[in-house]
């Protein structure tokens, strides 16, 4: 498998603002590559550079091994695009819209007709063929946007936040659809600031912050990069500062927070951290309520690397 | 040719509005070219006034005046009482009030002219003054006969005979001194409808294609950018020619043989050049409208603004000197000038001034296109 997209030392400036700061990325064939980062981190700018919609100041972008230019129409033939904002004609019906965008790549009428039918079926828009975009719900509109982008069966599909403002049901359908496209052989670049989505579907993830790639790898690899291995939460009343000090002395525990009766213990690796903490509570005869343990999320990865919450900065 | 096809699908979606403009224009043009031509040919007619008259004299002069006025105007019974009279004047039921006092004939024969008749004019009414003028004319003529030695009976009889003589009114100079054809009136209003049709047609399509998301999406596609621009340009051209042809067929139906005369052909070329100019104006307007709803408003601004300023609706002769100077900066002015000049032309070789106006319209087309292109480039760069 070769590299589908290679971004090397990409710099893009908007006057004083550095949108991309020596960005380096490689997307391999057959993967769903997630670009994760808060709003303004440079995801869309990176996508626009890959699509040759933006001129950049420095670096190079190679798609299918060739430098992409605005006039690289042979390369563009193999790329499917789903932009962040819905790009469809209000004056055309669902079917006409898909046919139009498919027609920008496929000239053969018979083949195009077949592809349009497949895209309509793929996106579950069979009952809405004659509908105008204004009559569609937000979720259906997003599905139409995706159908327009993938109808010509591209090798590389670039999706820029395709699930923004979509209800959970439509979101799941979209995510399943992306996985299906990938199973059929398409390489997907998927940007989002929803870490759960990225974690769910992406085989490899790059975390962007202030135009730089701060970390990349599989979800597991990213989580392994950080200190936090497990987070334990316990409802416990009346804990004293010395209790917190003693808990912190337990094996693998490196951070303890206690706020409004809720104890949060962060452990770096180890297998039986919860058992050790419960033992401590029993020995000290401290009562406790709900107890739960969670593995680190991409938000924890982002938090540790950048010092801020992905969720907070995304809003 | 995906963009070309979509161009007409968008036009098709807006066809209701475009057809409405076409039908309204055709009806109005038909009406105007017929009515205004008739008015231009028979522009003078006498005016009949409503006159309240009370003849207390019943003598020769009083009866003659009653007869004279009765032939020309509508004589109404004098309202009873001062209040009723004032009401009739207020509500404009009567234009003039004339009371002929008792003994008026005797006083006139005795050469007494003081308080001979009691006339009441309606304030601010020109009709009242017309009635007074006619009465004065009658009395002066009768007076002339009396002075010449005729008796009152003869003087009154001769005066009535003289007053029956009717003058014919002939226009020595009517505007530019030309008799204006039906074709002139049909083509006169073309700038308004072409500007509106182009902005609502081509302008709306351009605006749609220039939508930020759609524009980016099209640029990502495998269709070369130049080819995309060419398809949109071709769509605009075909639309412009279609609109032009529809109106030329209408012109043919309305004006008949006019279209096959040198004047008709020059008018058709004039309209074609203005259609090109209107197309460029629509391209220009599309660069500044934030959305298609605003474009609708802009179509009215350009359509009505250029038409009023350029002398489409109001004759240039009636516009002030400074207004005419400003009008030179809109293309419709040169179209109207050409349309007027065409009426004086018998042969193509006489049409030098018309060709000059053609050139001016083309210059405006070029200017609007260049300005639109500049705005487009700036907008693209800012994206």
How do the strands of the widest beta sheet of chain A line up side by side?
Answer: 6-7-8-3-9-10
Category from helices, strands and their pairing of chain A = alpha/beta
The most extensive interface, with participating residues per chain, is: A-B, 27 and 21 residues
Number of DSSP helical runs of chain B: 16
Task: Tell me the major beta sheet of chain A.
Answer: 6 strands, mixed
Assigned CATH architecture of the largest domain in chain A: 3-Layer(aba) Sandwich
Measure the end-to-end span of chain B: 26 Å
Protein name (chain B): ABC transporter permease
What is the topology?
The complex is a heterodimer of chains A (315) and B (383).
Chain A lengths: L2 E12 L2 E12 L3 E5 L6 H8 L7 E6 L2 E2 L5 H4 L2 E4 L11 H10 L5 H14 L15 H13 L5 E5 L7 H16 L3 E6 L2 H7 L2 E6 L2 E6 L1 H6 L5 E6 L5 H8 L4 E7 L2 E6 L5 H11 L7 E4 L3 H9 L3 H5 L1
Parallel strand pairs in A: 3-8, 3-9, 6-7, 7-8
Antiparallel strand pairs in A: 1-2, 1-4, 4-5, 9-10, 11-13, 11-14, 12-13
Helix pairs in contact in A: 3-4, 3-5, 4-5, 5-6
Chain B lengths: L1 H12 L1 H27 L8 E6 L4 H13 L1 E4 L4 H9 L5 E5 L3 H6 L8 E4 L4 H22 L4 H13 L17 H7 L1 H20 L2 H8 L5 H31 L6 H27 L3 H19 L10 H7 L3 H12 L9 H31 L1
Parallel strand pairs in B: 1-2, 1-3
Antiparallel strand pairs in B: 3-4
Helix pairs in contact in B: 1-11, 2-8, 2-9, 3-7, 6-7, 9-11, 9-12, 9-13, 11-12, 12-13, 12-15, 12-16, 13-15, 15-16
Protein name (chain B): ABC transporter permease
